[in-house]
Amino acid sequence: MADGLVSVVLEQLSSIFIQEVKREVRLVVGVKSEVKKLTSNFQAIQAVLADAEERQLKDQLVKHWLDQLKDVSYDMDDVLDEWRTAIAKSQSEVNEHPRKNTRKVCSFMIFSCFRFREVGLRRDIALKIKELNERIDGIAIEKNMFDFKSSKVEIKQLEHRKTASVIDVEEVKGREMDKDRVMKMLFSAESSQGPALRTISLVGMGGIGKTTLAQLVYNDHEVATHFEKRIWICVSDPFDETKIAKAILEALKGSASDLIELQTLIENIQSLIRGKKFLLVLDDVWNEDSTKWEQLRNSLKCGCLPGSSILVTTRKRNVANCMGSSPGTDILELGLLSTDECWSLFSQLAFFEKNSKERGDLEDIGRKIAAKCKGLPLAVKSLGSLLRFKSRIEEWESVLNSHVWETEEAESKILAPLWLSYNDLPSDMRPCFSYCAVFPKDFRFERDTLIKLWMAQGFLRETQNKEMEVRGRECFEALAARSFFQDFEKNKDDGSIYACKMHDMVHDLAQNLTKNECFSVDIDGVSESKIDSFSRDARHSMIVFRNFQTDPLPATIHSLKKLRSLIVGGYPSSMNAALPKLIANLSCLRTLRLPGCGIEEVPSNIGKLIHLRHVDLSTNEIRELPEEMCELYNMLTLDVSVCEELERLPDNIGRLVKLRHLSVLNCDFLKMRGVEGLSSLQELDVFHVNGSGEESNIGDLRNLNHLQGSLIIKWLGDVKDPDEVKKAELHNKKHLTQLDLWVDYRTDRRIICDDKVLEALEPPPNIYSLKIYDYQGVIPVFPSCTNKLRVVVLWKWGKIENLPPLGKLPSLEELSIFDMGCVGRVGREFLGLGVDSDISIGEMTSSSSNTIIAFPKLKSLSFWSMEKWEEWEEWEGGNEDKTNISISTIIMPSLRSLEIWGCEKLKALPDYVLQSTTLEQLEIGGSSILEEQYLKEGGEGWPNASHTPVITKYGR
């Protein structure tokens, strides 16, 4: 983590001179030489950091030296950030839209005072730089005492555990099912359709039992008789092809000492495996460069019998891919042991040679200790072995109540293997992992929120070709692929991970790395003493209130003046009284998360938190944000979602030119004036169109072309002007994928919406989901959309009598239609085949020139609350194009699910639905006529519907 901090400081130092030249900013006399000296010291320290980070595991003096370095790096980063912010603000234009003269005068005075103070500010920063230079001087001198090796010199790798194939099968617990799965993979490799040489990978976090499982399989009698040759190689890191080839040859031949060339080794191996079926186990592989493995793998394929296999164990999914394992079929990701399996393994070790009385006295404590291991076999074996020779209850209770790292014997056995995974991380990813220590154990991480927190701390550096968010997603996925995360929650559409957790032991590693920097604490009545035990130099904290506590925020928190992150969770009491003092004391904050804290007013002194980049005030009772928030020039994320009382954003919010994420979800009456200036926005979940006077219009979205993901547009005023809608230039929002339009979502009055407004919308070209709510036009228009639209929801189109021609959407997969109160019939116009439709038969024609397809990819169709709907028209087939050539029609050939609820008057379903061979589920509810026909045997429509696999009454 120190390497990442030093890199940030060096980048900041170099930018001072760039800004001096580009912006003609004068430095105080002497600062230039101080900056050069700082740069030189930091560069010298950076050169030895790789060695220092490795040595801190066993040398507490080195760890203390690194702690000092991180502390001064944090302080230097704050000073340089203050300087950079001052320069940027002094050069920026003041872009104000004052609502009141007093506000205008106030903003003008703030800006003028800044100009007046600029000279003093430069001197203040110069003094801080000089003071920090003295501190770094001492650290640089102390560095020489440790005789660190420079990164330019080859540094000895951390010691990897050496493995062999030998195992005592009787001592293994809980891998029977996994063993059976691996053996089935091995034995199915003889399929004539499969590859000549199959590679199967076991993937999982350090200590989860990959090697143990491979040993179980390797030593199984059935495996031993199935393969003519079995070879076990412990690979570790680095991946040396020649060394591996030599080890394989030694295993096959007994000796290879006289051979040193890779080609000669390969030729010898080929001669020994030709015409034979073999199993090669490569244990503990870290290499992600497929080119290093390719030559050796190709040589193993030559001449071997089909059914030969390679079994790989690795911590990283990327390794499994580059070794040639096919995702889904050849990769087994190992899970944690169950509670019973943990206890079985633990008791086998811990109770060895203990009598029944001793076992009875210790069993309750032992079960709690086993549960503390959270299914990780390495931890179970380490603690079980530790307690094997301890018989007193006090000794067992000490282990149960201690932090696992305080158990000296367990530290070397658990920490060291997990440290290898950390050490394998690129230096710029290490701070991202370590930051997770600020959260409590078993915390549910949301990917996008975690990325925003990393951004706020400066861990993610934006480049010309890659945005911070993209880099953040890559980092998150890399940590997940290296087994740092678990319990994944995945997006059903694209399989991406959006939430996860971290195993307790991995979390302990992160805490060990950040012992004096990060802490989380529960408020439980003794919180003051807990917080008091943490270092006054702590940088990141999370305070969790449990069970609707009435305790106030602990006063001790005000003394942690170097905090960069303050995150409050749980159920705190109101922080109104504490907030002004909190903000005044914690001037280094970059992240301030206070959701659900009963806040009614945000103090104006928040504008002095110049480092602040991430603010979460969601679910509070705020009516208005202070204008001083617009002084937070570095702000990246602002979340005021579910602040239901919030009436307006600050007038000058457009000055937050770096703001990238703005969340205002469920702020239903919020006025959003000034948003047009936020040209860096990537996330804006809801945009309110006020449509009158100086308030927001939809045209204010024109410049927000970096918007990504989902956008909801809600109208608070009448929607009559198509030209204003065109000004939004939604077609230029190429990164938007979901668009929701709420034309009239308020209940107090009906908003007038002209039919031409929807026609003028021009949705973004890459959206796959479009939802339109409360449209009150009389013509069933539908915006012209791209071929990528997969999801459509139409809700409460209160005046239309016919549905729009949705059947012509070529990629539509899910369609839901709700509360169409005036629709009495659904016919050919819905299919896109109506006479008056603008459908081009040529556009819907399949590869066969005389066939058209309506709803070609529709899988799910839902109708809800269609109170006047009586007829769903049959399609009798047949169409003619302009040359009078007969065109046959296919309707909904991919339909899987049909749901109908609250359509009381609907008489029957059309044959093209009932006779569908793809329909798997039919659900009907609140529709008595249909229920009588299709849900009961003997009903008039039952014979036509009975072939559908699932027919249910809705809600049962």
How much strand?
Answer: 15-25%
Give the CATH architecture of the largest domain. Alpha-Beta Horseshoe
**CATH topology-level fold name of the largest domain:** Leucine-rich repeat, LRR (right-handed beta-alpha superhelix)
Q: Give the total of domains.
A: 7
**Count of individual beta strands:** 31
Spatial strand arrangement across the major sheet: 17-18-19-20-21-22-25-29-30-31
The coarse silhouette is globular
For this structure, the quaternary state is single chain
Q: Sheet bearing the most strands, described?
A: 10 strands, parallel
| Amino-to-carboxy terminus distance | 54 Å
- Rounded mean pLDDT score: 82
- Unreliable runs: 21-25, 93-116, 745-749, 835-843
Using the coordinates above, name the CATH class of the largest domain: Alpha Beta
Radius of gyration from CA coordinates: 33 Å
Organism: Populus alba x Populus x berolinensis
Protein name: Disease resistance protein RGA3
InterPro entries: Apaf_helical, Leu-rich_rpt, LRR_dom_sf, LRR_R13L1-DRL21, NB-ARC, P-loop_NTPase, RX-like_CC, Rx_N
GO molecular function: ADP binding; ATP binding
Outline:
By secondary structure, this protein is of the alpha/beta class.
